[in-house]
Specification:
Mean pLDDT: 93
Low-confidence stretches: none
CATH superfamily of the largest domain: Glycogen Phosphorylase B
Distance between the termini: 32 Å
CATH architecture of the largest domain: 3-Layer(aba) Sandwich
Order of helices and strands: EHEHEHEHEHEHEHHEHEHEHEHEEHHH
Helix content: 40-55%
CATH topology of the largest domain: Rossmann fold
Strand order of the largest sheet: 3-2-1-4-5-6-7
Length: 388
């Protein structure tokens, strides 16, 4: 076992990502071999998205640095400029903190900025949830770029492990640990229904849907046009309660959030929305909804553990491994309506009882900690391309 004290820096840029990292952060903080450093960035620092860095502090974590990079626009130009600002900010942060390892999760442009700065600073990078494919978003290219900058890879399934190796990464540096979301579900003491209803100020009904929709960044058709089809379909539902979580800060995310606010305002008797539910409220809600509706990765990675359905709209998640609880549909009202009808059919509801989540059994944190404690941190970041 390595005895030398190690500074491990974790970057988080969004509410969803922090929820997935929570238990890993706790374990790193508690281990005497490590010093935990946390950098918050992106929507965590925006009042528009709920100033969710405060949730991290309430959970007892010290935030070492805050990297402001989010502009008040979500145009393609603004996203590029935000990434540039992030590169500058992370460069300064890493220079001050001087970590021995950077841990990042996922595929957002905030994380691209962080890993690029770390690569130039010769800081080893451990990447969680690499090797996945999402053909409808530029996250795909960002994710694979982060893979090539990283030393260790903690992936969620064997297929993703093979893809990281296919990208030229040595097999001995790639670990199939399972999905961090499953880990979070298994370790969290979820709220009972009455506790949750009090916490979120919303009562569940006979039918309930969680709606989470984000911009599809590689589509030629405007995301707002697609989301309007979603809302038109939801508008036709009877005796159904709707919980919306707001979209992220990708291109056109703000426009989608305005549409959500308008819909909830005109459907106040059966719908509500949240800038950030927090991972406890969100996961607790999945116990009591019939499905996740939209195009969020949560519908594929976490929802199957609760044996509920997922209505996966459009191509944003195309390429990801899917359980039998996923209903794929096109981003038009007819297809979405048909998917909702399938969801509530007797055959599909019976099928849900036999669904398994392909993203593991909830032991990702322990496996990652074991690697961090029992593998030597690299002294040189030179890598030989691994040929198949």
């Amino acid at each position: 076992m390595i005895s030398k004290f190690k500074k491990i820096c974790v970057v988080t840029g969004s509410r969803a990502e922090y929820g997935l990292l929570y238990w890993l952060l706790k374990e790193i903080k508690a281990d005497p071999l490590f010093e935990l450093q946390i950098i918050t960035t992106g929507t965590h620092l925006s009042s528009e998205f709920g100033l969710t860095y405060q949730e991290i502090e309430k959970d007892g974590f010290l935030i070492n640095k805050k990297v402001e990079m989010l502009l008040s626009s979500d145009s393609p130009s603004a996203i590029s400029k935000s990434t540039g600002l992030g590169l500058i900010g992370f460069s300064d942060a890493f220079n001050d903190l001087n970590p021995n390892l950077l841990i990042v999760l996922g595929d957002r442009y905030e994380i691209l900025a962080a890993t690029t700065a770390a690569m130039f600073a010769k800081i080893p990078i451990a990447h969680i949830h690499g090797g996945e494919t999402t053909e409808g978003a530029f996250d795909e290219a960002i994710r694979h770029s982060i893979t090539k900058m990283s030393w260790w890879h903690f992936v969620a399934a064997e297929e993703y492990k093979n893809r990281v190796i296919q990208l030229g990464e040595a097999p001995e540096r790639v670990y199939n640990v399972g999905g961090m979301g499953v880990d979070c579900i298994k370790k969290t003491d979820l709220l009972k229904k009455y506790e949750l209803e009090k916490s979120i100020g919303f009562e569940f009904g006979n039918k309930n849907l969680m709606v989470t929709y984000h911009p599809v960044t590689l589509e030629n058709r405007k995301p707002t046009e697609q989301f309007n089809e979603v809302l038109n379909s939801l508008d036709k539902l009877n005796d159904t309660k709707l919980i919306f979580t707001l979209a992220n800060s990708d291109t056109n995310g703000r426009a989608i959030n305005k549409m959500i606010s308008s819909f909830v305002e005109s459907h106040s008797s059966n719908s509500t929305s949240f800038k950030s539910m927090g991972f406890l409220n969100y996961l607790s809600s999945l116990q009591f909804v019939d499905a996740v509706v939209g195009n969020s990765s949560s519908g594929l990675l976490e929802a199957p553990t609760f044996k509920i359905g997922t209505i996966n709209i459009g191509d944003r998640q195309s390429g990801r491994i899917k359980s039998g609880s996923i209903i794929d549909c096109n981003p038009n009202q007819k297809s979405i309506t048909n998917a909702i009808e399938t969801l509530y059919s007797i055959d599909f509801q019976n099928k849900l009882n036999t669904v398994d989540n392909p993203y593991g059994n909830g032991s990702a944190t322990e496996t990652i900690i074991d690697v961090l404690k029992n593998r030597s941190f690299p002294k040189s970041l030179k890598k030989t391309f691994y040929n198949l």
